[in-house]
Amino acid sequence: MFRIAFEAPDLTLYVNKTSTTPDNLAGALVEGNALIVEAMEYARADLDDLVGMGHCHLRIRTVEGNLNDLVLPAVARFRRQAAVVTFDLRVTSSDRIGAALLDGKTDLNVVFNPPGHPDLQVVTTVMDVPHAIVHPGGLEGLRRGSRVLLIDLIRFQLELPDETFGLRNMIDGASKAAGISLAPVMITDSIDALRGFARSGIGVAPLPPLSFAKDLRSRSVKAFPIADQGLRVAKSKVFVNASRILPAAARILGDSLATVVRNFSRSAVA
Predict the structure, then answer these.
(1) How far apart, in whole angstroms, are the C-alpha atoms of residue 132 and residue 219?
(2) Structure pTM?
């Protein structure tokens, strides 16, 4: 069962005590009524969405790394409440997602470590700090959860995401700050390629936990937090357009995303 919260703004009526005309009171009543009508329209729109969700279509854009362990589980949870809602789910690069939201082309965005913007409102956040992932037989001598530095990785075969990834920008900044030059043997625009590179034993790939959680659960990789300055704090965030009133279904999906985030955070790698 859905719960609708109806909120109307507080109304205060001001009367000029020295005036013998009702103009001030009438004006306040007109303004107050307009606010009530506006609030009722919002509530009616929510009710229409919830009662007739068969006509509701949600647009989501996400980076590839947040797809399987965040977005799709949230959609599955949502559809247990409203199975007839349809979705337009697009996987794209970090640099295009914010623009799509500001242009009104999407309802909810899920991005890794995005820059702030005054017109974008954060719905929920998950800590998603980059790790070096390798085949279970790789990086011998390091215990699970041990921290590594980028300089520790330069002697291994290294694969990096391309420049469309927010993670790549972080890595480039951290390597520059550390005064080292990374020479990857492979560059890719695919999360699956990064995961496969590590799983196959070719070498080391940097990824945030949401991108490789499935591999960690199956014990097909092991992961080490990267401790360089500039890589210690990273987050995946769910964004909406702050200037737009979202349909009720989008807000419910936002709640589902928040629930998945809480569950993931409790089980994420250290």
Answers:
(1) 15
(2) 0.73
pLDDT tens sequence across 153-180: 998 999 999 998 989 999 999 999 999 9
d(CA 211, CA 229): 21
Provide the token pair at 32.
Answer: 């107050």
Strand partners, 62: 91, 110
Write the DSSP assignment of 142-174 as a string of letters.
Answer: PPTT--B-HHHHTTS-BEEE-TTSHHHHHHHHH
* CATH (domain of 187): 3.40.190.10
Structural domain boundaries enclosing 252: 53-125+236-267
Summarised one tens digit per residue, pLDDT across range 96-150 is 888 888 898 999 999 998 878 888 899 889 889 999 999 998 887 677 668 999 9
Spatial separation of the C-alpha atoms in residues 269 and 128, rounded to whole Å: 10
Contact 84, 54 (CB under 8 A): yes
Rg, Å, the chain Cα set = 24
On whether residue 13 sits in a domain, the answer given is yes
Question: Residue 204, Cβ neighbours under 10 Å: how many?
Answer: 25
